[in-house]
């Protein structure tokens, strides 16, 4: 019998005991953590590397979390949901002790999973667009067709259009869980869950900006992502209250917010350019005054 099979049978037969011991061993230090947080990060998008007990535990957790999603509509983002998911995978209900933050672990897992799915979709879209552009260039190089306009389906999207489609695609992933998503948003807003929620949100906006073509390496890198995070959260709040067909009011709201963001970016650039001009003008006037006063003369 292989070591992997023996370990699998041992964990199944002693799962309740192992989970109980691990849960109890974690409770002591957690009492000193502000806000009751466990201080642990799920990081479901970054699984452990190597063949170890941590890898096996990670896979078990992932199976339980994925299985638990089907019970969210009945029990919400709760320990009961995790227990149901564990039982459906053949583990005892006490397996929920593997998730110290309860339902928050399930929300973080689903959020990170959706982010990964969107990133894969955007990457494929960008690669397809680049391939199409390369083929069009090769076909039209040196021919009269060089002046032809590309078809609507082949037209390269503007940055605003690309971001709008990406945000809409990501928000549509919420729709199957819309009846319980306000509860999920409330859980993410709790102080002990806010750090990882913010991390997941910024990872999302970073992916969108990256595949939209942003390669800024200055302070704009931060302002763009934080601004888009604000647009995403405000649109998400609008969406959970939207009763229109196919959430058309939400997408209109999103387009207006992105247009506001675009105009704010233009204004910020003008202010920056104006500040540079004003600074250069002030420096020139200062030099002129010094020259008139003879302060810049080495023969003075």
Automatic annotation (TrEMBL):
Assigned protein family: Belongs to the COQ9 family.
Chief place of localization: mitochondrion
Alphabetically ordered keywords of this record: Lipid-binding, Mitochondrion, Transit peptide, Ubiquinone, Ubiquinone biosynthesis
One Pfam family named in its UniProt record: COQ9_N
Domain of life: Eukaryota
Function: Membrane-associated protein that warps the membrane surface to access and bind aromatic isoprenes with high specificity, including ubiquinone (CoQ) isoprene intermediates and presents them directly to Coq7, therefore facilitating the Coq7-mediated hydroxylase step. Participates in the biosynthesis of coenzyme Q, also named ubiquinone, an essential lipid-soluble electron transporter for aerobic cellular respiration.
Provenance organism: Lingula anatina (Brachiopod)
Pathway, per record: Cofactor biosynthesis; ubiquinone biosynthesis
Residue intervals of the COQ9 C-terminal domain: 194-264
Stretch forming the signal peptide: none
Identification of the protein by name: Ubiquinone biosynthesis protein
Residues in Ubiquinone biosynthesis protein COQ9 HTH domain copies: 59-87
């Amino acid at each position: 019998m292989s070591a992997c099979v023996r370990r699998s049978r041992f964990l199944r037969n002693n799962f309740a005991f192992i989970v109980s011991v691990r849960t109890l061993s974690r409770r002591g230090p957690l009492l000193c953590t502000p806000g009751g947080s466990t201080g642990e990060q799920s990081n479901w998008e970054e699984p452990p590397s190597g063949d170890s007990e941590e890898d096996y535990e990670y896979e078990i957790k992932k199976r339980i979390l994925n299985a638990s999603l089907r019970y969210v509509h009945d029990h919400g983002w709760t320990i009961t949901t995790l227990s149901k998911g564990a039982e459906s995978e053949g583990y005892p209900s006490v397996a929920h002790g593997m998730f110290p933050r309860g339902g928050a672990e399930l929300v973080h897992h689903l959020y990170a999973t959706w982010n990964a799915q969107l990133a894969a979709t955007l990457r494929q879209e960008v690669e397809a667009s680049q391939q199409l552009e390369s083929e069009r260039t090769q076909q039209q190089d040196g021919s009269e067709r060089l002046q032809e306009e590309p078809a609507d389906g082949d037209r390269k999207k503007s940055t605003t259009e690309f971001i709008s489609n990406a945000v809409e695609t990501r928000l549509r992933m919420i729709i199957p869980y819309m009846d319980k998503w306000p509860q999920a948003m409330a859980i993410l807003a709790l102080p002990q869950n806010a750090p990882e929620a913010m991390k997941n949100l910024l990872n999302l906006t970073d992916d969108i900006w990256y595949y939209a073509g942003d390669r800024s390496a200055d302070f704009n890198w931060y302002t763009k992502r934080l601004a888009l995070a604000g647009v995403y959260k405000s649109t998400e709040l609008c969406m959970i209250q939207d009763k229109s067909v196919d959430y058309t009011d939400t997408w209109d709201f999103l387009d207006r917010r992105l247009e506001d963001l675009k105009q704010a970016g233009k204004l910020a650039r003008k202010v920056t350019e104006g500040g540079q001009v004003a600074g250069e003008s002030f420096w020139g006037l200062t030099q002129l005054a010094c020259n008139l006063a003879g302060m810049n003369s080495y023969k003075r």
